[in-house]
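Thread: "does anyone have the structure for this chain?"

Original post by V.I.:
We have the sequence but no experimental structure in hand. Need at least a predicted one for the grant figures.
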Amino acid sequence: MNDITAIILTKNEELNIERCINSIKGFVDRIVVVDSGSTDNTITIAQKLGAEIFRHEPFEHYAKQFNWALDNVNIKTKWVYRIDADEVVTPELASEIVDACRKYQDNDVNGLVMKFKIFFMGKFLTHGGIYPFYNLTIFKYGVGRYEDRAMGEHIILSEGKTADLINDCLHYDFKGLDVWINKHNWYASREVADYFATRTEGQHNPNDLYHEAKKTSKLRDKLYYKLPKFVRAKLYYWYRYYIKLGFLDGRPGQIHAFLQAYWYRYLVDAKIYEHELINKINKDNRLNEK
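Reply from O.Q.:
Generated one for you, tokens below.
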């Protein structure tokens, strides 16, 4: 049809998977679901909608899971579309994707970067520095893979350049505060693992990344993590809520900025502090044993 394989990574996504698949099945050639242990009706729903199901456990982190999919689901199309189960492609975006994949089929544009609009507590957030959120999600098979990071991962192209799409992809990430908090606690642990790994093992040159990912990587690794622990969470909130006008999104914007800064970012710093403290205690104990 349009030479596109869509890959969706899932675990317990029965609330989202039907809406996601229905938004893409009219223009992609193949829909692949790679599941990591769903215990709800995710797989049943996806199969009924025509998706092919692969299972891969354990889930280490997103980058490893998606790279496994690239290597094991027998992709034969020109393009790969990495889409999350809680994302929805609008008809306007679908048409734009098809046109772009045809336009760039035989030149050196090997990746397509799209914009995301996040739905949180009944409202699409359009301020606070989170809109537009850019991500490289469509690329030519064989020239794109995720960088091996536990958190903050981006697709790296081995060659060629990217092009930006205009229309928004809708991101329905919010399933209630309990789910949000549990997920971001998990994210925080991944962020801490990535924080220490990138300081001991190194990472990709930021210049390998597409424009927005390059900027985000430099701000996070070269600026944010250079600031004092815990203080930076407060500065992040002021930046998001006041400087980037997050207050214009009303109460949902305030809650989102507060939770991202004073809960998630502060929790990351607390886990970094805990990790360093445990290492120090263990080191002191080893010295005392000598």
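V.I.: this helps a lot. The chain has a mean pLDDT of 91.
O.Q.: and The first strand starts at residue 4 and ends at 10.
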